[in-house]
Every structure is written in C-alpha cells, then in structure tokens.
TrEMBL record:
Pfam families tied to this protein: GH16_XgeA
Entry protein name: GH16 domain-containing protein
Domain named GH16: residues: 26-281
Signal sequence coordinates: 1-18
Keyword Lipid metabolism on entry: no
InterPro entries per the UniProt record, alphabetical: Beta-glucanase-like, ConA-like_dom_sf, Glycosyl_Hydrlase_16
Source organism of this protein record: Marasmius crinis-equi
Classification via Gene3D superfamilies: 2.60.120.200
Amino acid sequence: MLFRWLAPLLVLCARVWSFKYVLTESYEGHNFLSGFNFTAIEDPTHGRVNYVNESIASSQNLTYSSDDTFILRSDFTTVLNATGPGRNSVRLTSKRQYNASVMIYNVRHMPEGCGTWPAIWSYGDDWPNNGEIDVVEGTNNQDANEATLHTNTGTLHYGSEPYYDWEDCDWLVNYNAGCGVKFRQAKSFGPAFNANGGGWYAVERNDKFIKVWFWARDNGDVPKEVECGAPILKPRTWGTPDAYFPSTNSCSLEQKFGPHNVIINLTFCGDRAGESTLYRNSGCPSTCVDYVDNNPGAFVEAFFDFAWMKVYETPLIDVEVNAELSA
C-alpha cells in the first residue's frame, strides 16, 4: 500500500510599504511667482552678486513669463565697478514651508558659464538646525548635478557608495561640503543639460528617506506621471533614484530636518564657484571675480527656464502584499 504524503503549502506574505502623493500646488508661466517672494539680501555664500527686489527684476527683465514659461536670469550687459555691488541676479524664496512631500521641477534651461553657481534647494528656519537639501546644484560648466544634505552637528553621515563626494552631513566638517552625491548622468547639469533641452528633477522627502531623481528630456523611461505632472504620484514605481539618503536609528532624518522653504537662485563666484582651485580646474580664465566683473556678455546663457514646478503632499500609505507559495 502506497501512502503519498502531501507536504503542506505555506503561503509567505510580505508587506511592502510605499507612499502616494496628491498634487497640492502647481506653478507655471504667469503664476509661477505667486508661490515665491523675492529675497534681496546679502549673499550668505559671499558671491559676486547683487540680489534685487521684484521691482528691479521686472524693470531689468531678470524675471519674465509667458503662458508656459518662467525665466529667471542675471544681468548680462553691465561691466561692474570692482568696488561696487556684484552682478544683478535673483533669489526666490517660497512663501510656504513644506514637510513630507514630492516636488517636480520641469526645467528646460539652467544658468551656465564660468563663475555661475545656480541652485534649486530648500532649508529650514535657524539654519543649519532644520537641515538643507540641495536638489540641483553645480558651478561653472560642470556636466553632472550634485544632490547634497547639510545638517547641524551630529551623526548623520553616509558611506562612499554610489558617488558620495563627502560622507558627513555636518556643516562644521569639510568646510560645510555636506554629504553629496554626484549624478552618473552627464546631461544632468550645465551646458550638456541645456543642449539636450533640460529634463525633470524630482525630490521625495519624508521621515524615512530623501530621494532625488533626474530624467533627461530625451529619456524614454521618464515616468508618465512625472512627464505630465499627474494629479497623483507613486514614486516607488520610478526606479532607482540618483541620490538616496535613508533615515536610520543612529541617523534620524526626522530629528535633523524640519519644515523647509524652497529656494531658487543664481549667484556668482563665492565660497564654491569662486574657490581658486575649482575655478581654475574648470578651465575658466582669469580670476572668478575679475571675469564676472568684466565680461557681461559671458552671461547671456545664465538663466533658468522653468516649464513648471509641482508640489505633492498629503502622502497616502499604500500597502502591497506580495504572496509566495513554499513547500
């Protein structure tokens, strides 16, 4: 007599937690400035720049818009007095502060040229105590974007993979270099970015991680919800981010990052772009300050062209259950 023993089948289930985000704000064309204030302050990074107010920016055409375009640029006609103010430019600060969110920036063109230091970033009150997130940043004519975190003193730091320029986010370490990731895509910044028609940057921030993505304009794999600015986003489906900063028990993002204002600005030289070795290694002539002062025509291409910016908040927890059969 044969007995066939049937091994019981075990169903192994794993829960995968992810987030969906809902569109709450959209800035495009003529309404882009409705979400921002002009910040005419002395440059905290000691740049050769003169940030102007809204009235001057408008009269000098440093900001202007159409139905589907917003331009932010610097002056490109004035030879500067060596003892006078820097080159006129614009620094915008969002009217609102944001916590858990996804932001998408659809950018067609960014400032390029020797001496330029454009950025799209965010920071909290009482810097550096509520952290800083640099989503888009670079200097001179570099071709790859860098995403960087800056924090107050503590233990928030990351290893050397994949492309961390510095491991420690502490603003007192490495002259406030922060913990930055250089993107692998050469079209993610500067002249190469502009020649390709720009692309999309996205940043997802919550208490569990901070992620930053970039898709070039000719990238056929850009998620449709990103390309179109869909009303609901599911970032978990977007693939591997270009920069990933997880929260851990010893390195808590919740403790290091508070509500943030978004900043869009263009400065010149200063602590980074004007650092003599970096400037020289970029193949730029003269000194940074001398070049910026005396070559206004070199900054014809020193402008941002935004198609739109969208903000997604009120994250919805989305639980997926994966089931596997095992004998």
